[in-house]
Amino acid sequence: MTDLPQYSGSEPTCIKCAWKGASTEYLPLGDCVHGPGDRGVTIGWHPNERLHRECQRCQYQWDEAIAPPARPAEAEPTETIPDSVLHAERRHPDWEYATTEGQRKNWPSSHIPPCGDDPDRDTCDHGWERNLAAGYPGEGWERFDYTEESYWRRPKTATKETS
Fold first, then answer.
1. In the chain, where do the E strands start and end?
2. I need a surface site. Which of 8, 79, 86, 89 has the fewest CB within 10 A?
3. Band (95; pLDDT cuts 50, 70, 90)
4. Least confident of 6-10, 22-26, 41-45
5. What number of CA atoms fall less than 13 Å from residue 31's CA on the CB side?
6. Which of 45, 46, 60, 77 is nearest to 12 (CA)?
7. Per-residue pLDDT reduced to its tens digit, 80-90
8. Phi, psi of 144 (to 5 degrees)
9. How confident is the model at residue 67 (pLDDT cuts 50, 70, 90)?
10. Which 3 state secondary structure label does DSSP give 86?
11. What average pLDDT score do residues 4-16 get?
12. CB 57, CB 19: distance < 8 Å
C-alpha cells in the first residue's frame, strides 16, 4: 500500500507556489532523495515506485504515485439511428435501394418501380416499394432542374422474379 499522494497529471501544480509545471523523474523503490538539482540528499527509503517532482519556479520537491494503469478502451455505446433516417439516407443495412428518373413535370411512369429491361414494365415490381423517407418527406420523390427522381427500396432478402 502506498502513502504517496495521487498522480497529479502530466503538468502538476506546485502546492507551495501554485506554479503549473514541474520536472518529473521516475524512481523505482529505494532511496528517497530530496534537495536542489543533483545535490539532493538521501532522506530515507521508499517502498514504492514513484514520480519525483520538482517545481520549476521555487524548486520545491515532492513524490507522488505513478500514473494509474491505462484501462482498455471500452466500446463506445452505439447510438441507435432510427430506421427513417437510414432509409432517408438510403443506407439501411437490411435494404437495397434504387432510383428511377424521368423528365421534369412530364414523367407519366413515375409511379412504376424499377424493372430493369423487363418489357412488361407496368406489371413488374420485384418487391420494390416507394421509399417514402427519401426525397420530399412522405412522398418518395424529388424534383430537380431537368429531371425528377423516384426513390425505391426493398428488403435484401427479397428475390427478383424471373418470369
1. 22-27, 30-34, 41-46, 50-55, 61-64, 95-103, 129-130, 141-143, 147-155
2. 79
3. very high
4. 41-45
5. 7
6. 60
7. 888 888 998 88
8. -120, -170
9. confident
10. helix
11. 86
12. yes
Band (44; pLDDT cuts 50, 70, 90): low
Q: What are the structural domain ranges in the chain?
A: 1-69, 83-155
Q: Which amino acid is at 140?
A: G
Residue type, 32: C
Q: What is the Cα–Cα distance from 128 to 114, expressed in whole angstroms? A: 8
Q: Which three cell numbers stand for residue 134?
A: 427519401
Q: Which three cell numbers stand for residue 46?
A: 521508499
Q: Which residue has the cell 413535370?
A: 105
